[in-house]
Amino acid sequence: MHFKDVLPLQSGASIRAYDLSYETYGVLNADKSNAVLICHALNASHHVAGVYLDESGQVKAKSEGWWDTMIGPGKPVDTNRFFVIGVNNLGSCFGSTGPMQINPDTQEVYGADFPVVTVEDWVDAQARLLDALGIHTLAAVMGGSLGGMQALAWTLQHPDRVRHAVVVASAPNLNAENIAFNEVARRAITTDPDFHGGHFYRYGVLPKRGLRIARMIGHITYLSDDVMNEKFGRLQVAPTLVASRTTLPPEGAHFPLGRPGGETLAPTPTVTSSPFKYSTQDVEFQIESYLRYQGDKFSEYFDANTYLLITRALDYFDPASAYGGNLSLALSKAKAKFLLVSFSTDWRFSPKRSREIVKALLDNQRDVSYAEIDAPHGHDAFLLEDARYLGVVRSYFNSKVGV
Amino acid sequence: MHFKDVLPLQSGASIRAYDLSYETYGVLNADKSNAVLICHALNASHHVAGVYLDESGQVKAKSEGWWDTMIGPGKPVDTNRFFVIGVNNLGSCFGSTGPMQINPDTQEVYGADFPVVTVEDWVDAQARLLDALGIHTLAAVMGGSLGGMQALAWTLQHPDRVRHAVVVASAPNLNAENIAFNEVARRAITTDPDFHGGHFYRYGVLPKRGLRIARMIGHITYLSDDVMNEKFGRLQVAPTLVASRTTLPPEGAHFPLGRPGGETLAPTPTVTSSPFKYSTQDVEFQIESYLRYQGDKFSEYFDANTYLLITRALDYFDPASAYGGNLSLALSKAKAKFLLVSFSTDWRFSPKRSREIVKALLDNQRDVSYAEIDAPHGHDAFLLEDARYLGVVRSYFNSKVGV
Predict the structure, then answer these.
(1) A83 with A26: CB under 8 angstroms?
(2) Predicted TM-score (pTM) of this structure
(3) pLDDT value of residue B62
(4) A260 vs B contacts (CB less than 8 Å)
(5) Which of B212, B217, B285 sits opposite A315 (nearest CB)?
């Protein structure tokens, strides 16, 4: 969808003549009351559910929507009942206008000149998309992690346009540790000599070193300590096959969301104990191999400026800040009913942070359901198949969300 | 101390004509029964206690020993009673032979050719130092974190030479998450274009970008989430003064151990809420400023190859591996009495890991004292002043460690 009108941004800057990529699933009903908006997290896209077919009608490799476990016919968010909209945010590198595209004011690639966008800006842009689709009120807005922040922001910026908000594995703001991890990732990117102040496109290079490091840090923080020990522990890689690991298997279409829990590892055999190579630079442990592989893959398809923009949007989000830090006061504007879900081993967006939102909503006598799922997978759990988690969302949509 | 004899290493390689830097405190008694060996962690040195004076007899800035809270006259490890030896490990950049020095076989700087050294190798080298000092049996061997691993290894490699082992904030091996953080740090260093495969000395450059990232990651993991929120939270930096932050204050002698909890911040005023700059590359939050400052400082004095070597020594340490993972079996060789200390908020070397060692020692009917200190500072707590922690160590040395 192309938008001609200027969109004013929170920073004071603005953007004009932009596109938003979106995908829909199911059918909008006659009174347009069954729309569910899905907001994406760090490195996902509008491709929320289903699969893409290639020219010959075959399912493309790794083309599955990033929340396909959650959304589809007969699934927890049932597209036989709901009209689901996946939208790619401004600043992304997966279709909507972002740093890799042409700035209409200069006719050059935006690069580092792409304006800084916030969660609130994304919500404003999403609201314009709904306007264009003729949808006034959402049956629900839903997202995990950074997507959950957008769902929460929807209830504050457009309280009369949201009946339900489903906020999964999210937080009312980032804490210092989260900002710290974002900052290290950003520094890895911006100090990569191939970054060129964000104008690397002009030089025909990509700051892949930085992106690799950023992604490796991300992966560590998305997984729980327990699941990492269970999956990798101190398993070594088989010495004779290590060299092959640096050559990645050919990839099909890019995979807009790297799902560490869901993805298969490069097929390097593991051994529980073998002679070490005693090297500081070769791979010894399976966890190293996994991280290198994920970092390499990510650096092939993700845009560095987008990474900076999206981590900054995470850092800035803090609805309580305008209320002297009082979250209850900040959330008093919300009129929606809420479902919050958190995961016991998520240390990036811990249950404690979800409970802060629950408490602030209850302080305002809002209708809130809250589920804390005992799951081993850390922050990543919100993307994975877990019967209790999916069951909670299914029940909520079945019993509470009318159309 | 210079050593002419070849030291065989665990890897199968060896090193010859090496030096070990060491410092001693107190007086060795007549029967040489009061020696306490202190083993250092990642980026510390033999300068364990006291201060250095400059030519005019003034105390040098930041020249305080890294465990000066613990060791000295009247302190928990009382140098009026004990002869304390601080030794710098092989591979370090603070005096003992390491990658920055000349390889006698080639007459060139070692660089990446410095052999990979392990915890066990360090212990062997330390034992030779004790031989040279005429000390057969240690009253105690003591260390925190990686230093604790060395203390534990002493009890296994030289069970008859250690009467007590004090193992603080340590673990019987690294778990997958710890290896993962080490690997990201190493990749940041080795993919820095100024690394040149570890032979950067020849090119007159230093891989400072990589070292900065490595150090930033380290700092995040040394602190607890709680203390980071308490110290930094979402505090912003004052917009007008940000530029000054990139200019570091002049440093005196290098500070061999960066102590995040103990160091003062660069004096940038903080504000609780101010207009954001809406920038992906400028500093907005105090935690970003702190990490950049620590990273910059570290990159000025620490050797990149040493960082690789020391993190690898951490990765490799795993005394149970030769016993099919059975730690109780592995520790059956130890004859020393033990004090173990852990800290409640240490998520890098959690209390659970210390308890594994305690259990394995108890399985062998060893004499073990264990203290789990409720401290807010994360892994860093082992370097900080904490009355309960210091009290436990004081009591142990006073009541149990005879001379």
Answers:
(1) yes
(2) 0.92
(3) 85
(4) none
(5) B285
